[in-house]
Amino acid sequence: LLPSKSRVANPGTPAPASPSRGAAVGSGAGALAVGGAPGYSSPSRGRCATGTLPAGWAPANPSVSLFLSASGHQAVLRLSQLDRVVLEIVETEQAYVRDLRSIVEDYLGCIIDSGHLPLKPEQVSTLFCNIEDIYEFNSELLEELESSSSAHAIAECFVQRSEEFDIYTLYCMNYPNSVSVLRECMENPVLAGFFRERQAMLCHSLPLETYLLKPVQRILKYHLLLQVGETPDGARPPAVEEATITMTAVAWYINDMKRKQEHAARLQELQGLLVGWMGPELEAFGELVLEGQFRVQRVRRERAFFLFSKMLLVAKRRGPAFVYKSHIFCCNLALLESLKDPLSFKISDLTIPKQQHVVQARNQEEKRLWIHYLKRLIVENHPASIPQKVSRGRMQLRGLRCLLAPVPNGDIGSGCFPQPASPLKTPAPSPRTEDTWGFPRGRRQSGTKGSGGESGAQQLLQWGWGLPQPWAKPAR
């Protein structure tokens, strides 16, 4: 029988005053000892495992072997891979909660109690963010993990609390600001001395900045800890599989929110650097997907390309600023991937044939990256209606196959989607400069005649795109 909350220990070793990772608590017949036991592997190092077993823990492997020494102290427990993974989850959660308690009590609490430190309340709030909420949440989670009696119960703890892990989103998004404030504090001699004194008093080998990173690391590691091999019967435990999927989704969501935050910050910065753009705020064109500078055929200087979810913006670098040159809506994008130069590809506007950009990438990797996202956005923004019964994944796959199919003129982006029952209207063109200022066109462009005898201008007025758009004037 396994005693409740027993700790493994080397036989004959007295129990230390305070428990720590790898230490023993208790002695005699009540202590479970697996030190030096054959056949038992540590969850992480392949040696003897140490840590706290959950109360009432029932190993997944029914074959449990106990070996008693002459004194009756030593026992050897053979655990399955699943048991070792569960043991590691509980053990590492204990160490993590101890670190959180140290941040809250030994750093934040000491700062609040001290009234002479030159720290403003907003600096303290930014530095520690919602670390107290995280400490309270993980303390409760640890209690549930320690009281669980099976791998299924351990996994259910993560599934049932999946929505509560959302508190990590705020902390992770604030972490760069926290590091910035901490580094400002270290430039102050009084604050730098205070943090060094606390580190020395707590006998921490690592500074506070490292401890503040632990919640970010922990939330992105749960799904890795839950990934286990197959059970002896060859099946993966359904509860563990569900917990792994749940925590993978949590990690993905936090990473995605962090990426969007960084892109939004870059978007605001770009809005302030863009000269000559008279259009709406750039955020109206969706997320900033890619950006880069390329050599363009028949252009002396490099051009900066900014690919949004709904538009491709082309600009010229002028010092720290960008001067607007042109743009193409993604619904009108056409892409020619294969040119004589293996590093080049051509981007053009379906509604303005003269607006073409032959772009040269620096290497094949950069070209593949841009080609991938350009193709994806062409499919996502294509005006053709797709049957609802087709799933999103199949729609994208079929769209790409059709998009990449060779056509007579070698271009892609048009004429390769199934036509709906009613004829499609002409896609809205990217605004022309001469349309913007009311100058007459020199000649009619191809493709402006719609079905039913309507002219391209009449259709655009019907769609609401034929109105003057003064924001399309390029910078001189």
What does this molecule look like?
- This protein is an alpha+beta fold and 476 residues long.
- The protein folds into three domains: 1-79, no CATH class; 83-259, Dbl homology (DH) domain (Dbl Homology Domain, Chain A, Up-down Bundle), CATH 1.20.900.10; 276-472, PH-domain like.
- It has helices spanning 81-113, 121-128, 131-147, 151-160, 167-186, 189-201, 208-219, 222-226, 238-273, 364-380, 392-404, 433-436, 456-463; strands at residues 274-275, 288-296, 303-308, 311-318, 321-329, 333-336, 344-349, 352-360.
- It has an eight-stranded mixed sheet with strand order 1-5-4-3-2-8-7-6.
- A hairpin with a 2-residue loop joins strand 7 and strand 8 (352-360).
- Helix 1 packs antiparallel against helix 3 (131-147) and helix 4 runs parallel beside helix 9 (238-273).
- The chain is globular, with a radius of gyration of 31 Å.
- Keywords: Phosphoprotein.
Keywords:
single chain; 476 residues; alpha+beta; Dbl Homology Domain, Chain A; PH-domain like; 3 domains; 13 helices; 41% helix; disordered N terminus; disordered C terminus
Class per helix and strand makeup: alpha+beta
The low-pLDDT segments are: 1-51, 60-71, 394-428, 432-476
Strand order across the biggest sheet? 1-5-4-3-2-8-7-6
- Average pLDDT level: 73
Q: Any idea of the CATH topology of the largest domain?
A: PH-domain like
The number of helices is 13
The termini sit apart by: 84 Å
Would you report the number of β strands?
Answer: 8
Pfam families: RhoGEF, SOS1_NGEF_PH
InterPro entries: DBL_dom_sf, DH_dom, PH-like_dom_sf, PH_domain, PH_PLEKHG1_G2_G3, SOS1_NGEF_PH
GO cellular component, one term: cytosol
Keywords: Phosphoprotein
